[in-house]
Design a protein that fits this description.
Layout: H1 14-39, H2 45-59, H3 64-86, H4 93-124, H5 130-134, H6 149-174, H7 179-204
Helix pairs in contact: 1-2, 1-3, 1-6, 3-4, 4-6, 6-7
Length: 209
């Protein structure tokens, strides 16, 4: 008998969606600074390091850092539940794009937390600075191991911004915005995400102003 599971209407708790969205807004404040910081790679390692040190006063404080980590893990857990429920429904391109970017970001977040907290800080005892991010002194482009970071970072930057755009589209539709307008907001956000991702990757790989 053919399964009809994918066509069933699955209820999603409004509290789950709201919690995921509110937590996402809090995390996006950190993400915005983090991407802003990486844009300074276009001005060189020193400029990047100066901005990073200013930010670390806040996001590495004994109060903020644990809350940030918990918020990131909350995003992964609630996002996983939402993907599980929504993937059981018949969907369109826009929902599929939102789910796909969310899945990638969950993997990216867990990978990033593992690299920073478990490998770098706990196991290797090294600083997660410019050299750690770019694979200095060789660099990402010329190291057979570090070159994997180019698509990893590029997709990470693109998908985090595009996922926020997908969420904004849903919010606009929920507030009676025209579907065409909401879709255009997503396309504009995705275009902006591509440009930011490309710019950051150029900076991390040696392009300078």
């Amino acid at each position: 008998m053919a399964s009809t599971f994918n066509l069933q209407k699955v209820s999603v708790s409004p509290l789950l969606r709201i919690g995921h969205g509110v937590s996402g807004l809090l995390v996006s404040a950190y993400v915005a600074f983090h991407l802003f910081n990486h844009l300074f790679s276009l001005f060189g390692e020193s400029a990047h390091a100066q901005v990073m040190e200013m930010g670390r006063i806040v996001y590495r404080s004994p109060l903020i850092e644990p809350l940030l980590v918990l918020a990131l893990l909350f995003q992964v857990v609630t996002g996983g539940i939402l993907v599980w429920k929504w993937s059981a429904q018949k969907t369109d391109f826009y929902r599929l794009f939102q789910l796909a970017t969310g899945v990638f970001l969950s993997i990216f977040i867990l990978s990033h937390l593992n690299a920073v907290f478990i490998f770098a800080r706990t196991f290797a005892g090294i600083e997660t600075d410019w050299s750690f991010a770019t694979g200095d002194p060789v660099g990402m482009l010329y190291d057979p191991w570090s070159v994997r970071l180019i698509p990893h970072y590029a997709f990470g930057v693109f998908f985090v911004l595009a996922h926020l755009g997908s969420g904004l589209r849903v919010v606009l539709l929920a507030h009676a915005a025209a579907e065409r307008k909401a879709n255009n907001v997503l396309f504009a956000t995705a275009s902006f995400a591509f440009l930011i991702s490309l710019t950051i990757m150029l900076g991390l790989n040696g392009v300078r102003f």
